[in-house]
Protein: YaiO family outer membrane beta-barrel protein
Amino acid sequence: MRKILLSFIFILLYTALSAQELSSDELFTRARNEAFENKNYPAAVELAKQALNQSPDYTDISIFLGRLYTWDKNVAAAREVFQGLEQKEVRDEDFYLAYASLEYWNDNYAKALEILEKGLQYNPKSEALWMLKAKIHNSADQFDASQTAITKILEFNPENAEARAMLIQLQSLTAKNSVGISYGFTHFDTQFDQDWHTAGLSYKRATKLGSVILKGNYAYKFGESGTQVELEAYPRISPTFYLYLGAGFSGDVGIFPKYRTGASLNANLPKSFEAEIGYRQLYFSENILLYTAAIGKYYKNWWFNLRTYITPDSSNISHSYTATARYYTKGAQDYFSVQAGTGISPDDNRNNLLNDDTYKLKTFKLGADYNFSVKKTNLFSVGATWFNQEYRPETRGNQLDVSLGYTKLF
Structure:
């Protein structure tokens, strides 16, 4: 205890002596260095105070002092600094951001929103203030209000990647109900004489815990037809983490797998990154277990994603990789997308039609799709994918998939 006290006294004496001939700007610089490089908040606080003794009306230093108290968890001192600035009628964007952040991090959502409302009166196009407002509403499960704030940011700056990522996350939480219908057509040049047809009908319900989706699938191949029922859920653990859980059943084995299950942990990471890790399982006459991982990144109007599936068995390990680039034209449901990859993806609707052997064979694919909305509640999609697939060992063929989809939000 004595050593700690002596060290603290030394810091005070050192900063006082070294500050005698320094300007307030130089003291401010030293305070920032102590805070950001050394994480020494007490020393940074003393330097900031000395700078304010020289320049009491230096607003940036006062705001920084309030932030230092916030980071050091001295909430009372931080509030005292910010309330003093409020009495001086400071209108700087950074002041409102720092003050509202203090209240947000201490779960005082109502006070934080009150501060932001005042700040947005003077800084109506501040992306930082709107973003913090969106995060507060999101933390309070006020998803419609959060989406409104995010939409404002994208009106000012359509290339704000953080806002774009958050809008995608909110989309599934704000549209309470949706009904979708899809159709897929597959043509083979050599593998099969008959074309395949698939169709799907889905209903999604958004809840506070996350979305739940019920699906019914139909497929026609080899002159026979079959049906499948699927149930998917996306439980929300926190603003950062959510799960994917899925299961399916069909009595028409060969057209569909008898069972399919899946689970993933998804994370919305800093700097507009996202990640996923999980598994998928298909059962025909034997069990197929695949492990999956993906990493995504929002950059301006773009979303980039790389996904892999790894399938271990007794003799080798099968790999598949898919790279996707998506360009958003307007909102969360308006974009162009291109894909390129190798191997089989069990999450694609056509690959519900896999059997025990095809997942092991080599496939190259290249595809594109276009999604657009009409009056925000009518969502349309059209896509095409070319496959060059090894359908028997050392024997390859081409196939073309065309897909159409429509979803109604309400």
